[in-house]
Amino acid sequence: MLRLWALGLLLLTPLAAGPREVVNALLADPSVRKALDFIQANEPAMIEQQIALTELPAPPFAEQARGLAYKKLFEERGLRDVRIDEAGNVIGERPGRFAGPRVAFTAHLDTVFPAETEVKVRREGTMLHAPGIGDDGRGLAVVLAVIEALGHAGIETDGPITFVGTVGEEGLGDLRGVKHLFETELAGKIDRFVSVDGTRYGITDAGVGSYRYRVTFSGPGGHSYGSFGMTNPIHAMGRLIAKIADFEVPAEPKTTFSVGRVGGGTSVNSIAYEAWFEVDMRSPDKDSLETVHGKFQSAARAALAEEKARWADRGGLAMDLERVGFRPAGANPAGSAVVEAAVEATRALGLEADLRAGSTDANVGMAAGVPSITIGGGGSGEGAHSPGESFDTTDSWKGSQRALLVALALASRLE
Known about the structure:
By secondary structure, this protein is an alpha+beta fold. Helices cover 37% and strands 25% of the residues.
């Protein structure tokens, strides 16, 4: 194996170097060029792998079938200590020459679609159509492409890379897979974190945090005429939703709120015995997120009290605030070498480095103080999270090449 540290000595580059120097040294390395060429030539096989994984359903909290297939793919590519942890994450190790830096390189296994969703991929020229084909069928394929390219070119990195297919990234999965990595499975063993999520070439360097609640109001219920004058769970729910709709939030940092689902009631001529709704609140700024969260809790108490007072609490009324999701807000420090390495790797391939905030697996790393980013997997996609999701494979190999350079740079001794 060609040792990347040796190349650094040949180029008179110090063992610890800046992002630009590291990326330039990588591009001058014949073994890295071999790996990049392999990725381009091997892209048709990776597209087939992307299709095969997409056609294995991975609905929320039921990623097992796709996880088992991914575990086998890790094993076939020579990763060590391949395993599925208690959360369902698929993990495989690729040792480095030194103990660090330790890089976690990931994509998520789950989709937003229920089990009965048709996931057969339909081809139209360069276009692929299927729910989940880009998010995150593409990310899963890119992770495999990086593993294959490293092996094909015989590259030995400075630090070890742990490759992971995570569970629970979407929706009410609440980032449970990556939380398990940081809190249990790989606790204290991650120095730098990357997730490959979706398509195109963006770099997510700030984490949009969120609180999600399911609010349930309940009472005895009754006939709309005969029991008139009783507290009404649907009316209480309406009071609270109206209060949420009137929240004042800052435009910068962008802070949002939305009631996404509602339910309850028995019939048009009944006072409901139960009503519920789900609310989502977001911000990339921890303090702004906590402020809108506090407003929500105050509004909930006020809505309950107002409905009780309106009818002298006849029949009784109860409220349950169930937190169904929390994603911590976070950001990498200004001038982060990890972010800059991703930017340099992107530009080195003639691609535009688009920095953005997002809500991804990288949130957990940022909040834990671990330099963390999410990168797109290349190609272009439309309709993510919809049955009409599509992926254009035109030049999609550039995404895998960028991912390889990012992985190599982060496993190097950046300063």
